[in-house]
Structures are given as structure tokens and as C-alpha cells.
């Protein structure tokens, strides 16, 4: 275990991911956690992240100097580098020499940390203060035009640091430097693999659910719930029941991927609830986006809970158990953001489902609680899940319901499904799936436009392509799709989808536009 101490910058999660890419398990701790508590977890190494502040600023986050006396290797980055320097008796000063963005660094002496890194290379910096003198016993490894001490190490003590951000994409050789610290200085073993993750999770799920417990998992068609279910299935077999609510708002082929391909790959016991008509009835006449979301959310919970009561009611009758387990695909970023630790979850969710015994308690099973999204996909591959599920791009819970501008009807859904399927096919054929974060296709169902096809006038609907690039969906840019790809999508949709006679592309970034239209 490597602990990444978070000083409030946005970089801690990225650092933790990079450590794991080096096949060493890592977790994030907020800087205000007492050092004794951090050490009690017996970390093999501690990384001090960057932070927004100057070490001299009032109220600047700090770390108790006892950290440096515990015999645990420490790596400081940016702000963490300065904390290390000042905590170990070096000097940090406001030199007025700020560096932001791409910066050239010169390696004077590679030592262990910068071994095999080119003498001149480019790194990403973001700092106002600078280390002006390294602590006693440290060798200075690198400098920049304005920062005399940009990297240092004391290999015997297990300490090293860099002024730059090795974790960001724009820093050359960042991963190599991080691995030199982890492996050559801290002596970490690179054993964190997807095979180990799956095995560990299976063990702990068995321990949590016990010999007789029954678990239920809602499948959405997305990667998180699919991987969570597949792991739990490995642990407890047919004592897991998956429920898939077919609300009729999925894209072409997605329900089959769950019903047929997912079941074939995992052998899970699946209960499909065909609720299409119910959703269409509930959505009849609804055009307001928020109202649509409310209706879809409400119906979903009702249908799911009824299925849950049926499945668990049976199981409780058979086993007499008083605890039911609910599997959820919670990911590590959600855990970090809600301030929770990454230990086993013991949260009880509040449930009040008609048809179940009053004293039945629900306990959450969260097999992905320690994982990042990219790790979840690797685990999914490891478990042999279909690539369409493992690599599926984000798709909103309310489905195509919020991609039809206007009332949602079956005929409109069919139109949109056809157009969307063509767009997805062409994106895949062009090899763009992993470059594009997401590409909603939106049907402007209440808008008509005039066209001409063959000899005749048409009066059909436009569709909008909304290709975006993004890191986290909080901000996004419109993706510059190659013209040939847009052309093929446009030609095929207007030829093959009757009633669609115009294809447009949305070139709005987020903000101001959201990714979805509703
Ligand atoms: P917006 O439209 O807010 O979307 O820019 C950001 C990301 O969230 C997805 N999204 C949803 N996901 N339920 C979901 O599970 C929803 O109600 C929902 N609305 C938007 C959207 O597809 C994009 O990836």
C-alpha cells in the first residue's frame, strides 16, 4: 500500500492512478488525517501531492514532521516537495520566480530517481515558491532556468522529491521517475494486477455475504454494474440475482447485449422486466426535460423495487436470512469525493419495499469501491465480459428519453435508434470509439425541415450529432470529427432512416452547453 496525501489539489487521484499503473496499490488520504493514523496502515511509501497554496500562506496545509522519522519512504511532488524541504531543514523561499505550464528541466546528476531520464526534458510545473537549499544529506539532481533545486533525493533515508508534476500527461518521463521512486528507492513490489484484484474481491465478498445470504444487483447495461455483478457471481454463484429493467429507452442492441451476451459470458441468474409499455404510458404527453427525468426515475424505482421484493421474498422464505445484500457499482472517485475511506463498506441503505419482511436489513456490497474506471474496464476484460459492455461510452440512465426533444413515443424512439446505430457503426469503423468521450445523437422530434430526395419534396426531422471529448464530463469540448466520417454518417442516416432528412453537428463546448440536450 502506498498512501497519497491529498493537499487539496486536483492531482491526488491522478497520482493514485499512476501509482497503480506501476502495479502498486495506492489509496488517497486527506492531509488532515493524523500521521500516526497513516502509519498505522503500514504503508510501504507515502507520496505528498501538490497543493494550491504556498507553504508560507496562513492556514497552509502541512504535515507533522514525525512523518519523516518513521522510516517510511516519502516522495514529494510540487507543494509536497516544498513541505519535505522545509520539514527536513532545507529552505523554501518566495523567489518571485514563478513557473506555470511546460518548463525545461536540466538533470545535473541523475542519481537513482532520474536514472536513464534525458539530461534535458520537458515537465509540467505550477508553483510560486521555490526550494532554494536542499536539506542536509540530500543530493540535488536537477534545476530549471529559475529554480536551482528542482529535484532531490536521499536514497539512504528513502526520501525523494520533484518540483514538477510527474503525474500529468505533459510531463515527459513522469511515469519512469515515479517508478524509480516506488521500486528503486521505496522497494515496492509490483504485484497489483487485475487477477489479484478479482481474487481478493471474491474472497471478501464471500466473507461478507456468508454461506446463505442472497444478493441482488440492478444491471443498467453499463460497465460498472456489469463488472460488479460478474465479480459477485464468481463469489456466490446463483445466490446472486441480477435485475434488468427494460424501459424501452435503450439503444439498438443494448438489451440483447445484457440478456444474451452478458449472461453467456458470466452465467448470472438474470431477471428481465419488460416495462417498455409502462414507461411509454407514463411519458405520454411529457415534454419538459426535468419532468421526463422525474417520470423515468420514479417508474424505474417502482419497477425495480417490485422485482426486488419478488426475488428477495422468495430467498428469505427459503433461507430465513434477515439480511439482504444489494450490489452497487460505486467507484473509488465517488468514495474519495464523499470523504469516505476505502475500507469495506458497512453502509445500510434505507429501504422500504412493499412485500418484504419489516425486519429485513439491506447491506451494500460494493466490489468496485477501491477501483478507478479504467481499472474496472480491465477487470471486466479479465472476467471475459463482452467488449461492447466493457468499453461502452457513458450513457445516461434516462436513456434515449432525454435525446428526443419533444414527447417520447415508440415511433420516435425507433427513428432515433436507427440513426444512432448508424452513427455508432461509422464511429467504430473509423476507429474513433476510444478518442471520443461520447457522441449522443439527438432527434429534434418537434422540428421539421424541408428537403428534397429523388424528385420529391420531403418534410422530415433533423438529428444532431453531439461528439465530445472530455476527461470527467464536468467540462467538455466538441470533438473535431474527420469530415469523411461526418459525411458517411450524414449520407447513411438521410438515405436509410425515413423521416430524417437533415444531419447537423453540435459545436458547443461545455460550458455553456451540457453534453446532453435535455
Ligand atoms: P451533461 O448533459 O450534464 O452530462 O453535460 C454529463 C454526463 O452525464 C451523463 N448524464 C447522465 N447520466 N443519468 C445518468 O446516469 C442522468 O440523468 C444523466 N444526465 C446526463 C451524460 O450522458 C454525460 O456523460
UniProtKB/TrEMBL annotation:
It is an enzyme of class 6 (ligase). PROSITE patterns: GATASE_TYPE_1, GMPS_ATP_PPASE. It catalyses: XMP + L-glutamine + ATP + H2O = GMP + L-glutamate + AMP + diphosphate + 2 H(+). Keywords: ATP-binding, Glutamine amidotransferase, GMP biosynthesis, Ligase, Nucleotide-binding, Purine biosynthesis. Pathway: Purine metabolism; GMP biosynthesis; GMP from XMP (L-Gln route): step 1/1. GO terms for molecular function: GMP synthase (glutamine-hydrolyzing) activity. ATP binds at residues 220-226. The active site is at 78 (nucleophile), 165, 167. The keyword Nucleotide-binding applies. It comes from the Bacteria. SUPFAM superfamilies: Adenine nucleotide alpha hydrolases-like (SSF52402), Class I glutamine amidotransferase-like (SSF52317), GMP synthetase C-terminal dimerisation domain (SSF54810). Residues 192-392 form the GMPS ATP-PPase domain. Pfam families: GATase, GMP_synt_C, NAD_synthase. InterPro entries: Class_I_gatase-like (IPR029062), GATASE (IPR017926), GMP_synth_C (IPR001674), GMP_synth_GATase (IPR004739), GMP_synthase (IPR022955), GMPS_ATP_PPase_dom (IPR025777), NAD/GMP_synthase (IPR022310), Rossmann-like_a/b/a_fold (IPR014729). Coiled coil: none annotated. Its EC number is 6.3.5.2. Homodimer. Catalyzes the synthesis of GMP from XMP. NCBIfam families: guaA_Cterm (TIGR00884), guaA_Nterm (TIGR00888), PRK00074.1 (NF000848). This is GMP synthase [glutamine-hydrolyzing]. It comes from Nocardioides kribbensis. The gene is guaA.
